[in-house]
Amino acid sequence: MNLDPRLYWIGFNLARGIGAVRMRALLDFFGNLEVAWNAPYEAYLSAGLPEKLAQRLVHNRKEVDLERVYEQITRLGIQVLTWEDIDYPKHLREINQPPPVIYLRGAFKPEDDWAIALVGTRRVTVYGRQVTEQIASALVKNGLTVVSGLARGTDAIAHEIALKEGGRTIAVLGSGIDRIYPPENTNLAKRIAENGAVISDYAPGTPPDSVNFPPRNRIISGLSLATIVVEAGETSGALITSTFAAEQGREVFAVPGSILAPQSRGTNRLIQQGAHPYLDVKDVLEVLHLTKAQEQRSAQQLLPVDEVENCLLNLLGDEPVHVDELCVQSGLSIDRVSATLALLELKGYARSAGGMNYVIAREAPKEYSVHGDL
């Protein structure tokens, strides 16, 4: 019986000591994780795993019923994304050592490629609350997705305002996706899943633990084109997110505050160290050239799908197709295919998969008909 390949990704995700580096090593050595899961002890050693870890893997896989685990996960309404999935977030895939497995409630959409992290202290001041509300509202109104960590204070405010303004928001947890923390944000998490996504790279059932939260911050910044820090003390976790953002080559913005306010010491220090001072949402749009998010929506409204676009949309799927193959199948010239693909990308209906290969986007119009002669 053929099992869903995700089972083996989950199996290794459950194994303590198997992170992104070792997962990549296993894939490189064995070719796929099904072969790796069923490999003998000696093969694990040959793949470069330490003796104790190899022993633990051999023992643990006997104790784990992967089909039962997967059934429990799906019964909870949790989706599983891996490096192999086309829906794996584009910007997160680009960071060093992206999480091999993401557990998800809700859905990623193409517009989430234009996401901004909005983070800050849990002990938010009146000033911090006002600024967070203003920034979250402005981001949503400019077609941007708000990413945060569902924590008390700044995070929760950012999510709430994004939802209130009818926008998309993504919450990244430091616990299993079925273990919402803090518990008072359980209803907020449910609403986020209905209008965005709640995600975690920790397996379901993982309790919130202080050691989990700093690593999850790399996912918050990794999903985002930039990170905005509203308020942060000198030891705030929000500063960890900004550090990850800088290491990932993403822009960092900080809201200036009073030099007398403890909650502004971290943000003022970030500005001193070279972060962009956030004064208006235009600062973000200009630095990141983010007019594209609005252009896509305008293009969809002003430029309806025509016959040539219909043709290419019907030739695209989840598996990458090379431009040359599209020319052969459609009978169109390379110039016509390239121009049409560019327009489909602008509309958010097609996506480049690299190497002149393209896939259909999740938001491609479902009403297009099977192409005929052009």
Overview of the structural elements:
Helix content is 46%, strand content 13%. The chain has 18 helices and twelve strands. The strands form two sheets. A nine-stranded mixed beta sheet has the order 1-2-6-5-4-3-7-8-9, sandwiched between helices. Strand 5, helix 10 and strand 6 form a beta-alpha-beta unit. Helix 8 (126-141) runs parallel beside helix 9 and helix 11 packs across helix 12 (237-247). It is globular and about 60 Å long. The two termini are 44 Å apart. Mean pLDDT is 89; it is low at 366-374.
| Number of E-type strands | 12
Instruction: Assign the structural class, choosing from mainly alpha, mainly beta, alpha/beta, alpha+beta, or little secondary structure.
Output: alpha/beta
Give unreliable regions as ranges.
366-374
N-to-C SSE string, H for helix and E for strand: HHHHHHEHEEHEHEHEHEHEHEHHHEHHEE
Radius of gyration: 22 Å
Measured by DSSP, the beta-strand proportion falls in: 5-15%
Q: What global shape is seen? A: globular
Distance between the first and last residues' Cα: 44 Å
Helix content percent band: 40-55%
What's the rounded overall pLDDT mean?
Answer: 89
Largest sheet: 9 strands, mixed
Condensed summary:
Helices cover 46% and strands 13% of the residues. With 374 residues, the chain is of the alpha/beta class. The two termini are 44 Å apart.
